Amino acid sequence: MLHALPASEDLVLRYERMLERYLEVPLAVVCTTESTGLDPEHEAVMALVRASDGPVVSGDGETPPDPSLVALEIAAVAAWPLRDPSGRTIGALGVIDHEPRYWTGEDLGTIADLAEGCSGEMAHLRGRADAERQAQRAQELGRRSRVLLALSEGLSSTRTLDDIAFAVERVAVDQLECLHGAIWLLRTARDASDTDRLHHVCDPSGGWVSAAINADLPVTMGNPAGEVVLTGRSLVFATRAEQNARPYDLDLSRQVGETRVFMPLGLGRTFGVLALVWEGQQDLSAEHRVTIATLASYVSQAVQRAELLEERELVSTTLQAAMLPRLPQVSALELTARYRPAAARDRVGGDWYDAVVTHSGSTDVMIGDVSGHDIAAAAVMGEVRSMLRAFSFGHDGSPASNVAQLDQALDSFGIDRFASLLYVRAEQPDGTGQRRLSWTNAGHFPPLVVRPDGSAGLLEDPMGADLVLGVDATSERRDRTALVPEGSVLLLFTDGLVERRGECVTAGLRRLRDAAAEHHGKAPDALLDGLFADLVGEGNEDDVAVLAVGLTA
């Protein structure tokens, strides 16, 4: 199974059940490169996926099967790689049949979607396990003494390099009784191959002037920071005179303090230097040096964590952008959308939107919110959107019928997440100047219509919305209809646009209605720009997704 990952056995069993149930195969394969005690079938599939670094499909009777499969009496296999956020193959997910089988496009699409979802959940599990291990380590070290605890607390909440620089100065002064503390880093701590220059990460308070003067240092033996990076060993000078006796090339015009320590930063390899200076001469005991080394270790972890958060944000943003659809170009409709992730989270979540042109010529637009604000929620969101897109394109059912099928599929596949959804169908123009809309609402906000005359209002149903997805797959789904004048703009939105902490949602809906009315007459793209400027701040607490549908003639 997924060795050393929390809750990993449940993850494997869940995905194996989904594969076996949906594809009706005798054996599903979900394993990672870390898995131990695998049976021969799992090992064979894992080896093929690792060798190809891509999908492995055989069994149509025309392509000769791999000899390793023949030896195991495997006649058909379809497997996809599981990947970590960097794209590295970390496992395999697929199915095996002992009889020849032609895998349909739907079969392969299902396996690919499940592999993507499983990869996302693995990334979430790994990230959570890493965070838990770091927190446990910090807690164990913190119990050693009051000082070590203070060091840990001083750096535990940092998220950026500026945060770390400020915390180092404060911890050094308050806990170690230093005059100043600062860090110098290579251009990137994640790639120590760039060893040309060290750069001072300036404390926003700007206290240590001499550090700012010597902010950019070559990685040579001509300065203490460069020497520490090259040797990987700390330097301790009892006095400034002892340091200045070395042939260092430094600007000493604003030099302060006496005793100074330069500690390497890095976990495995050096990517920077921690510098501490005391006003007077210090007798650094063994315990004191252990405390300094602990601070250096904490700073190293904080730097790597800050870079990891930046990298994770980039990966999450890229993932979210990749999962959001390209809206179709449709005659008599103008479609545009906006998505802004929550500022304080992974910048990825379960908000989504989509638009599908059906065989009949109508256009189905939809927006939803899967519970959660993490990569796992985004993975489920991708599954929900993909399934609903397939139902919309491949079936002639009404919005309520398609959403009912989606709810049943989620239940059948064991996807245990709640999700709200608004699904609207816009019929083609009929020459009357009115556009017929039909929609179904699964626990979501109703659509808002901005009419050409400047009025704006929700298309509400006196009976209220239907049940959210993921609660009862047998619950009734109802279609609603309305005629809307051409020239109107239909807005579908998620809760982040209208909900505020400590405020009734009615106030948020009223604010949206008033803002939409103020921007009436604008094209959908300009309308959304205006709404986001008015309603969505830079520090939004929740994800925001809005889909605008201009009902042109």
What does this entry look like structurally?
With 553 residues, this protein is of the alpha+beta class. It has three domains: 8-131, Beta-Lactamase; 144-314, 2-Layer Sandwich (Beta-Lactamase); 324-550, PPM-type phosphatase domain (Phosphatase 2c, domain 1), CATH 3.60.40.10. The chain is 39% helix and 21% strand. It contains 14 helices and 20 strands. The strands form four sheets. It has a six-stranded antiparallel sheet, sandwiched between helices. A five-stranded antiparallel sheet has the order 11-20-19-16-17, with helices on one face. Strands 12-13-14-15-18 form a five-stranded antiparallel sheet. Helix 4 (105-142) runs antiparallel to helix 5, helix 4 packs antiparallel against helix 11 and helix 5 runs parallel beside helix 10. The longest helix has 38 residues, at 105-142. The protein is flat. It starts with 7 loop residues before the first helix and ends with a strand.
